[in-house]
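Side project, low priority. Logging it here so it doesn't get lost.
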Amino acid sequence: MKLKVPHTLVLLFFMMVLGLILTYILPSGTFETVEEHHREKVVAGTYHTVEKEYLEPWELLTVLPRAFADSQAIIFFIFIIGGALSVIKSTGVIDAVLGKLLNRFGSKPQVLIFAGMFIFAVGSSTLGMAEEYLPFISVLIVLCAALKLDTLSAVGIMVVGYGIGYGTATINPFTVLIAQDIAEVRPTSGLWYRLVLLLPFFLVGFFHVKKYAMNVWKQSIAVEVEEKEVYQYPELTKTHILILIITFFAIALIVFGISELSGWGWYLIELGAVFFGLTIVVAIIGRLNINEVAIKFAEGATELTTTALLIGFARSIALILEDGLVLHTIVHYLSIPLQQTGPHIASVGMYLIQSMLNFFIPSGSGQAYVTMPLMAPIGDLTGVTRQTSVLAYQMGDGFMNMIVPTNAVLMGILGIAKIPYGKWFKFVFPLILKFIAIGSIALIVAVFIEYN
């Protein structure tokens, strides 16, 4: 009898229950914190237990609405981009562009895999992009289907690409720069080693995705989409080209708006506003009927309802651990063994601990503020340079983003692609093991060369 993996929502609910059980078993405790750059920073060596306040069982029910409220920015952003993409697609521009691409690369899916992964990796490594990729997954799925690749191949291109970008982040302002600041390491320092590491991790990730995708391609298994069977792609018109230009301008505006260079401090609310404005402009340029625009926008948003639910359930797990005051307890007890080892083992231990903590703290910047105040001093005690401690953090955070079900972006992408978490886990878990092995070697080398 074949074991059937439960629906992803069921898996997340079981994890919520497990989180609640942990709040009963583990002692409640906390570190002292100080506010720095408008974020709370943990003070190393200040962990202490506090009086336990047991969560009531029904809080397992009330935490979900709170989680939706806490995740409202990304949830509403997803609804808006779903509606925007539906309107853009109704103009025929996406189909026209796909037709052009297929004429050129129809027999070379390897080009799409390499180029796509490279673009996503660079965007995440430099600008810390993740949520910004959500609008592109639907387009990528259709393109892959036309090239006789399945939906899993499309998700692999995006998620593995951005996971590598985060894991070997060069100047990511939301992870490596924050961690370096907390560890009192000069910002952007040590860039050369991270650039060196980017190549082997990218090649391993590329060949992993390519091997799967090419097996699908050789068997000519196409994913089921609306354009299945024989489809006549429309001609690329001047109106389509103008819509493309406006769309690329909007994307460039978003990239600049979230960058530190602009100083605008944009995030999901502003990004959602840009996509909503783009919808209006596209409707005008495409001369679409206003009622038809409303219908298409609603349809696009409706298709992402499951995605919104996944994000809310994923956030609920972390909220339960925070409410039960056991999140800092988990961090504290995981860090104790590191103080009893030598520098080489300690660096690998840091990597493994950061990887495990990513399940409980999926936010890259949040994980930096909670763990780096502890890991940096532990590194001092064990002979691990602070630069190496930062590297262990960013690899643990970045690579595990590809597999932890508490990562809202991952669950959002899987929701849009309608891929069960169990199926994705089976695909990506072997790659995670490879990255853990390569990352451990990279950290041992970093200790050996006294990476600074």
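Brief comment: Strands lie at 29-30, 33-36, 39-42, 48-49.
Revisit when time allows.
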